[in-house]
Structure formats: structure tokens, C-alpha cells
Amino acid sequence: MAASQTRVAVAGVSGYTGGELVRLLLEHPDVELSFLGARGGEERSLSEVQPHLAGSTDLPLREIDAAAIAGSAEVVFLSLPHGVSSGLVLGLLEAGLRVIDLAGDFRLRADDYPEWYGFDHPAPALLAEAAYGLPELFAPEIAAARLVANPGCYPTAVVLPLAPLLKAELVRSGPIMVDGKSGLSGAGRSLTDPMMFATSSESVRPYRFPKHQHTPEMERGLALAIGTDAPAVSFVPHLVPAVRGVLCTSYVPLASGSTTTRELTECVAAAYAGAPFVRVLDAREMSDTKRVRGANTIEIQAVADPRTGSAIVVGALDNLVKGAAGQAIQNMNLMLGSDQAAGLSAAGVYP
Ligand SMILES: NC(=O)c1ccc[n+]([C@@H]2O[C@H](COP(=O)([O-])OP(=O)(O)OC[C@H]3O[C@@H](n4cnc5c(N)ncnc54)[C@H](OP(=O)(O)O)[C@@H]3O)[C@@H](O)[C@H]2O)c1
Question: I need a surface site. Which of 50, 57, 91, 273 has the fewest CB within 10 A?
């Protein structure tokens, strides 16, 4: 291990986002992967739970235990289901670790959890200190945080594209209609009938609307970004027969009927000038999840539709990378004072 390397743990390596974290962290120049946590610990191996990573490290799998993680690492990623990671975080913080939670446990206010996640928050005192991990919008807060709430994949594809347009008052704050599409890996690895090939191939279907848990997260993320009350969001997610990829199309009223696509595009491009993972498309291009597959990139497209007085704003990303593991590593880089792009510069996989 080089002197400057940080010891990093991942809890939940048998899942999709956990596997993606290990894949990316193994190539990170400033990281020594020091703890791989999975239920069952040494009864399982990395090559068993993530066959594509066989031979990439000699590390054994270990039970997910706060004390054991604290003895092995300085930073920990929690790739665990909602409601599980919040039980671990206090012990990890008390042991001096910095924590990046990929679940939704630290993204909302305490009052939101019973309604949107179906549980009472077990550590409400920590919610106020958790930084919302959108690096392009909240870098100073993330850099200073002990605890980062890594955003959901859909909210990332909505909040990043809309925030500059709302801030510049080129669009009005609502209602914002969001149509979301996700590939099957967005639901995680557990096998359920709606996720089976026979059920999902040749099918596009909405699910869990109008009460998807990412709806209040979009509203809160936008409110944090623009510094005013939350705009109201109406969100309908759809499952599409793809493995990776999230694409959200947001429809929002233009502030002025004479606003052009060029003004919208220039506003977003100026807001993210120098942001290494934001690709703003010009009016001739159409966003595509295929182009961002495996990369930490979000493609953003903002188009004026003067006939209806709307802006149509698209965000496309890989749910496992910019929507989860890649963004989490970008957050870690900020927390460590490193280049935010460290370990994340690989292009996507195409076609
Ligand atoms: N998939 C995405 O695109 C995406 C994007 C953004 C955020 N997220 C969030 O990231 C988190 C992980 O998602 P995922 O897609 O990686 O899920 P996943 O593929 O279902 O993996 C879940 C992981 O958690 C472990 N686990 C399940 N129940 C546990 C428990 N009670 N105690 C300890 N470990 C437990 C699983 O281990 P076993 O192998 O033992 O079951 C597995 O390693 C979720 O909170 C999800 O909402 C996911």
C-alpha cells in the first residue's frame, strides 16, 4: 500500500452496487480496499458472489460488523437495503469512520420515513448532519461531512438537470412532471417475479406511482439546490427491458414563452462548466443511456417547447455508476480532498 492510500471498506459486496463499488475501487489509485462485508462472511467468497471479479483480490469476505469494519478501514461504503444501514451508521461514526450510505436512510427528513419508506427512522439525530451527495451541487458540504447520503439514481437524473434552470428562473417551480425509465438492475439483485426475464422482456410498465420513495427526494434535492421551498414533483417510474440505465424526462413550465432551447442549454452548460462527469447535449443530440453505460457520466438535454410553454429536460445515466457506486466514489474523493475524478475516468462500454 502506498503511504497516501486510504483504507476503504464496502459492506454489501454481494449486491449490484456493492459489486460495482469493488470493481471501481480496485482501480482507484488512492485506495486500499481493506474490508469486504457480506452476510455469511467467510462462508462465501468474492468469486462466488461476483464472478466477474474472480482473481481481482485475495481479500476474504467478512461479516458486516461495525467494530470489525472500524478496525480495518477509514472510510466505509454501505451498499445495503433501506433500513439496514441506518442501524450501523452511529457505531461507525463513533469509531471515527467516514460513511457513505448508498441506501435512502439519510436522504430525507425524519417525518418522511414512515410515509415513504415505511419505517420510523432509528437515528433521526444524524439526519441533520448528513450531506446530500450530489458533488456538482454540494461539494463543500460533502468535503466536510462525516456522513454522506448518496443520492438515488432517479433523483440524480432529475435534480442535476433541473437545478440550474430553476436557480436561473428560466423555468417555474412547478408542478414538475417526471417520467422515469429504469433497467432491471435498479431494483437490486433479489429475484422477484416482476424482475424475471419472462416477465420483463418485451414489456414497459409503470410501477409504484404516485408514491415512489424518490419523489420526496427529488423535491428535497431541488429545494436544497435552489434554497427555497420544495417544488412539487409528480413522478412515474417505469421498468424497461434493459440491464443498466436510468433516463428521466422532466416537464416543467417555462418562465417566459420566448425562452429558447439555446438559452436553456447554455444555462445548464455554464452551471456545470468544468464538472468532469456532466455532458450537456446540444439541440441536435438525443440523450441515450447506452452511451453512459459503465461510466460516471450524466447526459443532460434541455429543450424549449414554446407551443406548450414547457421545458423538456432529460437526464440519462448508468444507475449503478453515476446513480450509485461512481457517484459514491466521487463523494469519497471530495471527502478525502482528492481530485473528484480519481479512479473514475474510464469511458463507458459501448455498444
Ligand atoms: N441498484 C441500483 O441501481 C441502486 C442505485 C442507487 C442506490 N441503490 C441503493 O443501494 C442499496 C443497495 O442496492 P443494490 O441494488 O446493490 O441491492 P442488492 O443487489 O439487492 O444488494 C443488497 C445487498 O445487501 C445485502 N443485505 C440484504 N439484506 C441484508 C441485511 N439484513 N443485513 C445485511 N446485509 C443485507 C445483500 O446481501 P445478500 O447477498 O446476503 O442478500 C446484498 O449484498 C439499496 O439501498 C438501494 O436502494 C441502488
Answer: 273
